[in-house]
Design goal:
The protein is an all-alpha fold. It has one domain. 80% of the residues lie in helices and 0% in strands. The protein contains eight helices and no strands. Helix 2 packs across helix 7 (134-160) and helix 3 packs parallel to helix 5 (105-113). The longest helix has 32 residues, at 37-68. The termini are far apart. The mean pLDDT is 82.
């Protein structure tokens, strides 16, 4: 059974990982800019559900995949990288359309579901007992959600206050933000793809 210091460690470690720039956080930033904090709150809920399902699935499946079929795990990683690359292209097109098209709940949910941070949390941060003991599982998930909420809110708020910084619209505008976000996500997808290939090559 997990103790209080274990839960604090899970919360702190998860917060360090979740606050890092990535596809989901970038989308929350863009949503904060285009929709504001209140309308973006449903996206934070979708992110919670996405992480909950993804972490749970990885925690149960990763050992089986690695033991019986590492090729399946490799394919899953490649599909995740390809989806993130597709997401980058989608955000770039939003910028080229020059409108305030909203980031949808489905987009946030799928992005979070395929976010490699879930894999890291399930395999490195949460103890293995969380996937065999109901008590440890519930409190581990609560610890992660406790870390996730302020971070998600912070990324969304940063996007929401960006219009206040636009003293020179010709130098800073939403199109520029979307393009930068698109490049960040695309680079992230390349790193995912390369990491998957290198890891697979080293294991074989």
């Amino acid at each position: 059974m997990l103790q209080l210091d274990d839960l604090i460690k899970i919360t702190f470690s998860s917060a360090l990982l979740l606050m890092m720039p990535g596809p989901t956080n970038t989308l929350l930033l863009c949503s904060g800019l285009s929709q504001g904090i209140i309308k973006s709150f449903k996206l934070i809920i979708a992110e919670w559900v996405g992480y909950l399902l993804s972490i749970s699935a990885w925690g149960v499946a990763v050992k089986i995949l690695m033991e019986y079929s590492y090729y399946i795990l490799f394919i899953v990683k490649l599909i995740s990288a390809i989806y993130v690359a597709y997401l980058a292209i989608k955000i770039w097109r939003l910028s080229l359309q020059k409108n305030n098209q909203s980031i949808t709940v489905v987009t946030i949910f799928l992005t979070t579901l395929l976010n490699p941070k879930s894999f890291v949390i399930a395999t490195l941060i949460i103890p293995t007992t969380a996937f065999t003991n109901h008590h440890d599982y519930y409190f581990s998930m609560l610890s992660i959600l406790f870390a996730l909420f302020p971070i998600s809110l912070l990324w969304t708020a940063c996007g929401a206050i960006m219009p206040l910084w636009q003293t020179r619209p010709t130098l800073f505008n939403s199109t520029l933000l979307y393009r930068i976000a698109s490049l960040v996500i695309f680079i992230f997808s390349i790193s995912m793809f390369c990491s998957s290939i290198f890891t697979f090559a080293s294991e074989n």
